[in-house]
Amino acid sequence: MDTPTDLLRVSTPWDWRVVGDRTGVQQTPTLSPTGVRDSLVGSATTGVVTSAGSGSPNRLLYTLGGASPPPPAPPPSGCASLPEQFSGSLSGAGDFDNHPNGTYFYTPRSGTHRGCLDGPSGVDFDLFLRKWNGFTWVTVAQGTSAAPDENVTYNGSAGYYVWRVESYSSSGSYSFGMQRP
To answer: How many CA atoms lie within 13 A of 146 on its CB side?
Structure first.
């Protein structure tokens, strides 16, 4: 590219992203090609592009023409912040689901287990972490408040575990997040 006007020459499917910012560049038509690049990179949002590749400035182009870019969205909180997500529905008191996906899991190392349950308003759903002791499942951590939401953290050794979402009262859909050590 020899001039800022050359930004309009689209040669790949990705170039439309740069063309979209042409209005911001028009405000300063005397910029050199390096100045155009610096202007685009300087007004882009950082920390949101993944797998950008070698040599990339790793920025997301911002195109409101001279206005400051908005701050990046905050990281997810609550259950959505945990790496494994599941959903389900309980039909009434005593009904339960095991997770992940109806079964148990093995963790080969010690560390912190985290579980987060988000149930609908007006229900009492509980969350249990159970560990196999060689003969039976034993509850090692639990969240049993009268609320629909529960958070459980447990520092445990290697072994077989299962999360259990159980209805103490009422029915409804829920979301569940978990993190293994």
So the answer is: 0
Q: Which residues of the chain have pLDDT under 50?
A: 1, 4-20, 22-23
pLDDT in tens, 143-181: 999 999 999 999 999 999 999 999 999 999 999 999 999
Q: What are the structural domain ranges in the chain?
A: 4-60, 78-179
The neighbour count for residue 49, using CB atoms within 10 Å, is: 15
For the domain spanning 78-179, the CATH number is 2.60.120.380
User: Which residue is associated with the tokens 């689901």?
Assistant: 97
Spatial separation of the C-alpha atoms in residues 23 and 19, rounded to whole Å: 9
Residue 68 token pair: 């400051």
Q: Is the dihedral of CA 150, 133, 156, 85 positive or negative?
A: negative
Q: Shortest CA distance to 167 belongs to which of 115, 110, 120, 109?
A: 120
Contacts of 104 (CB under 8 A, 6+ apart): 98, 132, 160, 161, 162
Model confidence, pTM: 0.59
